Amino acid sequence: MHTLSRGNFPIDYCICISYTVLMVRKVKYYRWSSKIDRETLPALQAIAAGLDFLVTTPGGKEGQPSPPDLLDALAACYLAAPDDTLAALAALLAAHDLLPVTPPDAPDA
């Protein structure tokens, strides 16, 4: 096996090839995180479960509610019909007084 050197650290040639392959591989999913209220995650899990958005990948989480699948479906609705999706969400949020407050326009200078 060939050994390359980068600074003071020898690097196996085989490892370099593997690393390069991983860097070129396309990723199917995007990982995103955001701060949410403590009660929001259980609420999203309840919504996902109520609408049968469940983890289908075999493993320890299989059958549990899947908020990411719920959000993916919501985004798909928006992409398919943006005006209808915005109107439906706006109506639901307005009915519960949850729409953000729009700040007044700044005075003209």
Note the topology.
Layout (H helix, E strand, L loop, with lengths): L2 E4 L2 E4 H12 L15 H11 L16 H14 L1 H14 L14
Antiparallel strand pairs: 1-2
Describe this structure in words.
α3 packs across α4. The N terminus is likely disordered. The chain has 4 helices and 2 strands. The radius of gyration is 23 Å and the shape is extended. β1 and β2 form a beta hairpin. The chain is mainly alpha-helical and 109 residues long.
Defining key terms:
single chain; 109 residues; mainly alpha; two-stranded antiparallel sheet; extended; disordered N terminus
The number of helical segments is: 4
Rounded to the nearest angstrom, the radius of gyration is: 23 Å
Strand content: 5-15%
- Overall, the morphology is extended
Kindly report the spatial arrangement of strands forming the biggest sheet: 1-2
Number of strands: 2
Q: Name the helix and strand elements from N-terminus to C-terminus, one letter apiece.
A: EEHHHH
- Specify the structural class: mainly alpha
Query: What is the averaged pLDDT score?
Result: 80
Helix content: 40-55%
Low-confidence stretches: 1-6, 11-22
Cα distance spanning the termini: 71 Å
Largest sheet: 2 strands, antiparallel
